[in-house]
Each structure stands twice: as C-alpha cells, then as structure tokens.
Backbone:
C-alpha cells in the first residue's frame, strides 16, 4: 500500500486514476479545484480531498495527514482554447503550480517519486507517423509550450536535486466523464437533433485515441517501474495507431444509432475543411518504451466509443 | 528617438545599456529592484526609474508616462549559485516575470519589439568549440533551465500572438560595475593581500569573454535590425574566441601589479582542481549571426581587464 497524492484529482483523468489506484489498495489524497463532497470523492477513490491551489500551505497540510511516497501531477490548464484565450492563466496553472509542487517535494519529500503528466501537444505540428519521445518539435499553442516548460522544471529538479521523476505524455484520451472535445461535442449535437453534422477540419486529421481505463493502467505501471529509463525519463502513452477523425466520428454516429434503435437513422457527417491555425495534422505515439514495460492496450476503439455513448446518455438523462 | 523600457535596468548590464541608449538620444525608462535616486539613475541614462516587480500595475503606470516602442528584458535571477540555493525564487524572477511582461505587451503594446536577454547557460555542459544558436543542450543548473523557459515563453507569444521579439544570449560579460564572479573575487582577494591566490577548477575551463561596452552595442544593434532573422530569432553575443581561465586570471594579476608599480610583485596563481558539479568546461559562441549584422568587437581583453582593475580600485577606494 502506497500513500499517493494526485494533483488535479477532480479532473477527467484524475478521477479515473484515483479510482484505479484505490482499487489496487493504495491510499489516495487529492488536491485541486472543485467542490467535491467526501461521499462523492470517496466513490472515486479519493480518501482526502483538498479544494485549492497547488501551494505550500495546502501541500503541507495534506502531508501532515498522509505523507505521500508517490505524486501524480495532473493539475494544470486543460484546453488549448483556454490557453490561447488567456495564456497567463494557463502559465500559472501549468508551470507555476509545478514549481510550487517541486519545491515542496525538494524540501519535504526528497525520496518521493513524481509522475508528471504532460501532453503530445509538446510535439506540435509537422510530424508524420509515430513520434518517439526524443523527437524535437515546436509545441502547439501556449498550452503545449507550458506543458514543455513543466517537463523542463522536472528535469531541472532531477539534475540539480536528484528528484525521482517520470514524464508521461498523453495523446487523445477519451472515455466516461470527458465533457469536452470532439466526442462530447458530437454527442451534444446529436442529442439536440442536429443533422447533418458538420465538423471542423477535413476529417483526415490523425490522432492516437486511447481509452481512459488503459491510460490510467499505463500511468500506474510507469509509477511502479524501478528499472532505469532513458535520460529524459519520458514515456509516450499512446497505442502507435493513428485513426483519422472521420473514422472515429463515424464510429460515434454508428454507436449513437446502434445503441438506440428507436432513432430515425444515421445523421450525415460533413467537414468544413477549415482547421484551427497550427492544429497538428497528425499526433501518433511511438509507444516502444511503454510496451517494453509490458503494457497492453485492452479497449478496442469501437467498444470504447460505444461505452462513451452509453455514458453520455446516462449522464445527460433527465 | 525611441521610447525604450529596460527591465532590470539597475543591474550591471542594464545600467550600461541604459547609458548607451541614452547617449544615442533615446528616452529610457527602467523597472526593477533597487533604490536609485533620480540624480544617480539619470547619470546612467535612466530618465524614469520604478523600483518594483515586473508586474502589470508597474508596467501600466510607466506606460502612462512614456509608452515604449522597444523593451529590453534583463530582469531575472542573476547568479547560478543563488538559483541552485533557491530555485523557486529564481523561477519567479526569471520566468514568471517574463509572462507578466509578455501579457502586458500582448494586451497593451502589440506593436512594440522585445529583446529578451538570455544566457549561454542554456547550452549547458558538453560543448566543445563554438556553439551555434541552434545547438541543443541540457541547460546548466536551474538558472539555465529558467533562462531557456524565458526564451520559450517569448517564442510562444511570437507563434500565437505575433510578438516581435529577439533573444540575445550573453556569454561571459565583464566590465566596470560587475561586482561578482571571477574578476571581482580575484580583485577583492588581491586587495586583501591574499597570496598565493588559489582559484577553483583547473584553470583550463574556457569562456568567451566579452566587454560590457561591446555587449550593449551588440544589443542595440540587434534591436535596430529589421531584416528577417532565423526562425528562432536568437543571437549569440560572443566573440567566437575561447580563453582559458588561467589566462584571464594571469592577465588580471599582471594588470593589478602593472597598474600599481608600488606593489611588492606578482602573486602566484594556483588552481584547486575542483570544479563545481555540472559547470560547463567550455562555453564559446559561434557569433556568425551577430557578425552578419556588422557588429565589431572593439575592446581587446588586456585593455578591458586593465580598465576593470582601474575601476575596482576607484570603486573600492576609501
């Protein structure tokens, strides 16, 4: 049994990670933003929830109750759009919060391990095919730049103070509780009866879709691995298979009607042909390092999408 | 005549830069830490000095008096040792101050140009010979990591908001007013009569020594250049010639006695052989981009060192 802290535990990934770690028998504390009654937090595996900034006072208070030997750092800005609209806010959420966390770990928890959760956005546009962890690239948007800076801070503390850290770069994570991005938007518009459904971009954009259940298993696996890793301590959390947006969008429409045979029939799918400036065409992981740890991707895309539609209907039912 | 803001104007480089720009006829405002009577600030060319953090309120107030069309950003942590001792403080001085400056420029001065002054510390150890601006490297100490993050922020604002910026990476800058590092320490110890003089390291460490007078001329030159530059907008401010520490140390001892023939004779120079962990062996610029702008290095090393000794004696005379 480990004592684990998750920053950003109230977010999409945080909740699932907490539940997974609690199911393995660990004690999970959480810190981040959100009013979360303890009855609900504990359903998600969070035994001790603090609603607040990642800051020394909050960290020391939770440490006094349960001193962590493992920290997952998920707190930070969570969307590209919000980061572009308010880069200063995204900087403080993603980068400045990390320095507060690292400084607390340096002073109070020098032997704890840190798993910093980053994003494929740091690779930026201009890649084709699977991307290795060492690929250079210009990060996409302030969101990607700030995630890269978060990684650099971990490396700086690793180099200068011996911080035991890993970086996990997430690709396109989806699953229940995800209330933003393509799948959420499509479900919302299908539920409103919009037809045809016109999406942005060309539909040819390629992403590496990963189910949240498999992603949190990968994060736990990385945290438990004591063997030496590459100098940059970084793992891509992706499948290695790219899927075009038009394909996943069609899967979702099929699941939407297949799951609900009372509906009138498939909604036609269109694409505007207009992409967001700088939006990478392709983001696909080279997951060799993760696979070498023995990770297995378990959720087929069609199953995962179908489950997402079920969750959406249940979550939005009145 | 331009209206110019210098952050960190009260520091070693800031003061000389202000004086140089004022001598060219520009109006110079300064912001940074330090009590600076206006009589003294104006001797250094600073017509409007604000003692305070790089923060919106201070920036807006000085903008109301004189709206800058050019900003030199020099504020930030200034020593490797201080950054290692207190990385959180160095982060806020160097990185968080930059986001405040950039956010103000994005909102209030979208057409102003920014010259961000960075450091060769971002190249880290492991280079031999002249380093080009595109060289990858692991920055040296939290100081170097934070300077790299400062550069990334500029690039992020350039990519997303069209900020007109340049990055200038300084190497080993010396000259009057420099009250730290090798030359200052040596003079202080020579003045105290220490003999022999034992310095850290092996004496073989190589640096690219640049006189402050030439450095501020280079910064002004970069600021005035409107021609397209490389994608990273970065210029090394170095001579391209590496000089071992034992050579510059001997130059200083020679100047010390040569300038003051009443002394008893040369102090023997020794080296401990012990280097600071991670201290780069060699940091020498490839200055091609700077030279292409027509910059000329004017101060020979022996002349510069001799001038430094004169300044030291004058500054510390009672």
Residues:
């Amino acid at each position: 049994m480990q004592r684990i802290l998750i920053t950003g535990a109230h977010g999409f990934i945080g909740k699932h990670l907490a539940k997974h770690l609690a199911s393995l028998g660990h004690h999970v504390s959480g810190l981040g933003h959100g009013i979360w009654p303890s009855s609900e937090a504990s359903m998600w595996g969070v035994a001790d929830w603090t609603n607040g900034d990642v800051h020394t006072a909050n960290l020391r208070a939770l440490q006094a109750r349960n001193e962590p030997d493992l920290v997952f750092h998920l707190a930070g800005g969570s969307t590209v759009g919000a980061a572009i609209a308010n880069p200063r806010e995204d900087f403080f959420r993603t980068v400045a919060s990390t320095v507060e966390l690292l400084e607390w770990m340096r002073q109070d928890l020098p032997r704890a391990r840190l798993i910093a959760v980053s994003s494929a956005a740091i690779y930026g546009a201009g890649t084709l095919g699977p991307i290795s962890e060492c690929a250079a690239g210009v990060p996409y948007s302030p969101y990607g730049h700030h995630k890269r800076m978060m990684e650099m801070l971990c490396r700086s503390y690793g180099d200068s103070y011996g911080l035991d850290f890993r970086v996990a770069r997430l690709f396109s994570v989806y699953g229940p509780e995800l209330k933003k991005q393509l799948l959420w938007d499509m479900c919302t518009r299908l539920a409103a009866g919009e037809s045809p459904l016109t999406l942005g971009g060309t539909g040819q954009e390629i992403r590496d879709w990963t189910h949240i259940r498999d992603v949190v298993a990968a994060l736990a696996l990385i945290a438990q691995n004591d063997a030496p890793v590459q100098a940059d301590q970084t793992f891509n959390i992706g499948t290695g298979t790219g899927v075009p947006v038009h394909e996943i969008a069609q899967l979702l429409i099929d699941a939407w009607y297949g799951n609900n045979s009372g509906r009138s029939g498939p909604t036609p799918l269109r694409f505007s042909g207009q992409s967001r400036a700088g939006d990478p065409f392709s983001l696909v992981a080279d997951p060799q390092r993760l696979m070498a740890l023995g990770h297995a991707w378990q959720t087929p895309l069609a199953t995962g999408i179908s489950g997402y539609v079920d969750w959406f209907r249940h979550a939005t039912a009145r």
Summary: The longest strand of chain B covers residues 113-119. Chain B touches chain A through 30 residues (CB under 8 Å). The mean pLDDT of chain B is 94.
